[in-house]
């Protein structure tokens, strides 16, 4: 039965390849790796191709390249399927059929659905993830699409590659820690396994892609305009307020240099207030409505994280 399922998936994928222009450029090894498989992780295989192709083929009908088609599919995931990210999902890992039925999914569920949506229109795709961020509790999973001879990072509902908050967070990883290394699912035995937090017993072959993503992150910081003489300062507060509160960066003359809002209790745990801290001089953080000023100095690292406790009211 498994062989029959694989043959059916291969035939369906090849049928798409005969009709969509970009699939002519896919090497056989890449097709076998990331186009014909009917699973993304260790989920139960399902016949999802006809359903997803019916949803997404009309969206890419006018596309002339895999790049264009990838962006069209990714940007329209929720509008095409009704599926969205929610902490109220029933479980962290779902099949395509479960996601389409329940609508509420984790980032892992989003990634499974996006990988399969891309494969359904002849674009090789695979899942990538990190078990633990360096600055906050939690993992993350995203997707890579293959075209133009390389893998490209894309996410559910995103309109461009290399999602900014992911690139920023990757810059704060410590690659010396195994839990903070980045892995891509592969069909080949590598001696490495994907960090499946939902099933610790799973043995899914993986490729270590940490160095490539660290390079992407460094390029992102440069393109994002972080001045060479500044360090990115990320600030969180505990407990988080119910409503947005402004935090200020002040110099030694108590002048406000920058200000932004702190994350609230409703924000994702990965959201921080972001400021540019000059690398020379002494500075203070002040939360509007509070009298406390917290001294802060830049370090040598590109990013510094500060976690504040809510001080007493002024």
Q: In DSSP terms, counting alpha (H) and pi (I) runs of 4 or more, how many helices?
A: 9
Strand content: 15-25%
Spatial ordering of strands, largest sheet = 5-4-3-6-7
Rg is 22 Å
What's the mean pLDDT score?
90
- SSE topology string: HHHHHEHEHEEEHEEHEEEEEEE
Main β sheet profile: 5 strands, antiparallel
Helix content: 25-40%
Can you count the beta strands? 14
Structural class: alpha+beta
Question: Globular, elongated, flat, extended or rod-shaped: what is the shape?
Answer: elongated
Stretches where pLDDT is under 50 for at least 5 consecutive residues are none
Spatial separation of the terminal alpha carbons: 70 Å
Tell me what the structure shows.
By secondary structure, this protein is α+β, with helices and mostly antiparallel strands. The chain is 30% helix and 23% strand. The chain has helices at 2-19, 28-34, 49-60, 66-75, 77-81, 96-102, 107-120, 164-170, 210-223; strands spanning 84-85, 104-105, 125-130, 140-147, 150-154, 182-185, 206-208, 230-238, 246-250, 256-261, 273-278, 283-287, 293-296, 303-309. The strands form four sheets. Strands 5-4-3-6-7 form a five-stranded antiparallel beta sheet, with helices on both faces. The radius of gyration is 22 Å and the shape is elongated. The model has no long low-confidence stretch (mean pLDDT 90).
Could you outline the blueprint of secondary structure elements for this entry?
Elements: H1 2-19, H2 28-34, H3 49-60, H4 66-75, H5 77-81, E1 84-85, H6 96-102, E2 104-105, H7 107-120, E3 125-130, E4 140-147, E5 150-154, H8 164-170, E6 182-185, E7 206-208, H9 210-223, E8 230-238, E9 246-250, E10 256-261, E11 273-278, E12 283-287, E13 293-296, E14 303-309
Parallel strand pairs: 1-2, 8-14
Antiparallel strand pairs: 3-4, 3-6, 4-5, 6-7, 8-11, 9-10, 9-12, 12-13
Helix pairs in contact: 3-7, 8-9
């Amino acid at each position: 039965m498994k062989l029959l399922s694989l043959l059916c998936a291969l035939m369906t994928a090849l049928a798409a390849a005969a009709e969509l222009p970009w699939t002519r450029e896919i090497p056989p090894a890449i097709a076998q790796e990331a186009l014909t498989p009917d699973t993304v992780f260790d989920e139960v295989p399902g016949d999802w191709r006809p359903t997803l192709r019916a949803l997404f083929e009309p969206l890419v009908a006018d596309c002339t390249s895999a790049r264009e088609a990838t962006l069209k599919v990714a940007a329209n995931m929720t509008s095409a399927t009704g599926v969205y990210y929610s902490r109220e999902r029933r479980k962290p890992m779902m099949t395509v059929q479960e996601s389409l039925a329940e609508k509420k999914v984790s980032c892992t569920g989003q990634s499974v659905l996006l990988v399969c949506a891309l494969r359904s229109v002849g674009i090789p795709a695979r899942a990538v993830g990190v078990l633990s961020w360096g600055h906050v509790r939690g993992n993350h999973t995203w997707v890579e699409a293959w075209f133009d001879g390389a893998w490209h990072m894309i996410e559910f509902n995103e309109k461009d590659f290399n999602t900014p908050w992911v690139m920023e967070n990757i810059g704060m990883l410590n690659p010396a820690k195994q839990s903070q290394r980045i892995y891509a699912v592969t069909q080949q035995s590598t001696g490495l396994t994907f960090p499946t937090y939902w099933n610790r017993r799973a043995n899914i072959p993986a490729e270590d892609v940490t160095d490539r993503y660290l390079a992407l992150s460094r390029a992102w910081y440069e393109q994002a305009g972080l001045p060479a003489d500044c360090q990115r300062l990320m600030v969180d507060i505990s407990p988080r307020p119910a409503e947005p509160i402004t935090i200020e960066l002040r110099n030694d003359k108590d002048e406000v240099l920058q200000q932004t809002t702190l994350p609230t209790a409703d924000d994702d745990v990965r959201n921080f207030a972001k400021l540019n801290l000059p690398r020379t001089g002494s500075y203070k953080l002040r939360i509007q409505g509070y009298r406390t000023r917290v001294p802060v100095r830049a370090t040598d690292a590109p990013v510094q994280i500060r976690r504040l406790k809510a001080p007493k009211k002024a």
